[in-house]
Amino acid sequence: MLKHVLKSTLLKWRANAFNGTLTFGRSVMTRPTVTLNGTSTTFRHMAQSGSSLKRNMHSSAILRQAEAAVKKQPAKNLLNSSKTVGYWLVGTSGLVFGIVVLGGLTRLTESGLSITEWKPVTGTIPPLNEKEWLEEFARYKNSPEFQQLNSHIDLDEFKFIFFMEWVHRLWGRAIGAVFVLPAVYFAVAKKASPRVNRRVFSLACLLGFQGFIGWWMVKSGLDQEQLDERKSKPTVSQYRLTTHLSVAFLLYLGMLWTGIEVLKEAKWVRNPTKALSEFTKLDNPALKPLRRTSLGLLALTFVTAMSGGLVAGLDAGLIYNTFPHMGDNWLPSQRELFDETYARKEDTGDLFWRNLLENPTTVQLNHRILATTTFFSILGLHMWVNRRKHILPKNAVKSMHTMMGVVSLQVTLGIFTLLYLVPIPLASLHQAGAIALLTNALVFASQLRKPRVPMRILVSGLSTKVVQKPNSSILVEAARSAK
Ligand code: HEM
Question: What are the boundaries of the signal sequence (predicted)?
Fold first, then answer.
């Protein structure tokens, strides 16, 4: 088994070494060193520490190339990140989950347009006395939403909608702090690998960008000119709402994916023998199509969720409140689905896509079609997995079962949200269900991922008797990093 792992690793090296680079997993690196929490280990060191590695590698040309590369560039690459980094990423993704649900509640209680200004720093402090409240209320009274929809509300009602939006924005700022400050610490303290640091940096940029998107979205509901152009009542643009939702979901998935990866690698390092048997299962070529399908499923669930964002943005859940029929028939008429009033070009060249994205009837039908496709794809995959569970890692089988349950619940929630004309608790649960389903699809896909090549090397080295000597620096450092 070990031989098999090492052989496949060496084959990969050989294939790439002759092109002058070494491939580590999916990223091509020119530094063939393994450093664990700051201590550098070259392949020669590993070869000296582990007799089987030594036997396989010592004579090879790859080793010489590796040594030459090390001389040229200092060894900086951490192999894996500390477990704390993994917990932090998963924890922060939980905060993003929370803000998505809160954002949904803000929309459903129609509170999102209550704060008419964007003050990134001073906006943290709400009105503190009666005078400040009256000033804030006066600003809201100038907004299209108050003038056209909410002119009946009093100061106490205004305080409620203000509070919802204020907490939403405050939560966003808190996520920024909880993400960025520890990220800097983990990078400086070398607790995160450069690979994780790069991802964290991209996620931090996306997080900052999300703040701007939030305000860009709110602006579309405050600006009368934009509302006139869209011929809309005072609500935010469905495009901007869906963009905001999609970035939130991407942030969530990015944090969770990276966090899970870090924790999984730490677990492998802690228990290399068990890890090796897991690797053997994951190396089974029969899993290749399933691995691709799992990523496809994640993408399909994401697209379905985005189509749900359009339904929410257009209040398209308030029409055709029947299921599975839409009204008296299975489908609305073609004239209604592709209504010319939605086309803005004189030659109606934009008729098709505008109806797909702007006509509530068509948008609702799309969501039904995508949701049904997602449901049956998961059902099909569930049946496939059930027949071949012996070749899959146990956890992957378990998460497939959970996914079947979650998608059934999600579809049921969606149907009841529609039948009961979008009551707030059901709609909010349906939104949370979408994130739960995405989480499940992501966990399933991550459980089928093959280990990165440096992980294979480390785990293989750790599992050999010689490397398990207490004075082996690989073992000591790897164990420390996995604590
Ligand atoms: C895989 C299954 C499904 C997923 C992943 C999904 C996802 C979503 C998402 C993310 C939203 C946006 C929520 C928000 O931003 O507030 C949404 C809205 C909605 N979905 Fe689904 N959905 C699914 C199935 C269904 C089904 C089967 C129906 C009913 C036929 C349905 C009906 C609705 C309705 C009516 C809304 C609008 C709710 C509102 O205005 O807040 N969904 N969906």
Answer: none
pTM for the complete prediction?
0.84
Choice from 377, 430, 439, 440 to test ligand 1 binding pocket (greatest atom count within 8 A of CB): 430
User: pLDDT tens digits, residue range 83-99?
Assistant: 999 999 999 999 999 99
Q: Is 313 in the pocket of ligand 1 (CB under 6 A)?
A: no
Domain boundaries along the sequence of the chain: 2-77, 82-270, 284-449
Residue 106 has pLDDT above 90, yes or no: yes
DSSP-derived secondary structure for 184-211: HHHHHTT-S-HHHHHHHHHHHHHHHHHH
Backbone angles phi, psi at 172, to 5 degrees: -60, -45
Is the distance from CB of 403 to CB of 437 less than 8 angstroms? yes
Distance 79 CA to ligand 1 centre (A): 41
Phi, psi of 284 (to 5 degrees): -60, 120
Q: Is 410 in the pocket of ligand 1 (CB under 6 A)?
A: yes
pLDDT in tens, 211-267: 999 999 999 999 999 999 888 999 999 999 999 999 999 999 999 999 999 999 999
Q: Which two tokens stand for residue 355?
A: 């109806």
pLDDT at 410 over 70: yes
Å from CA of 321 to ligand 1 middle? 13
In terms of Cα–Cα distance, which of 245, 203, 208 is closest to 102?
Answer: 245
In short, whether 430's Cβ falls inside 6 Å of ligand 1 is yes
**How far apart (Å, rounded) are the C-alpha atoms in residues 108 and 312?**
9
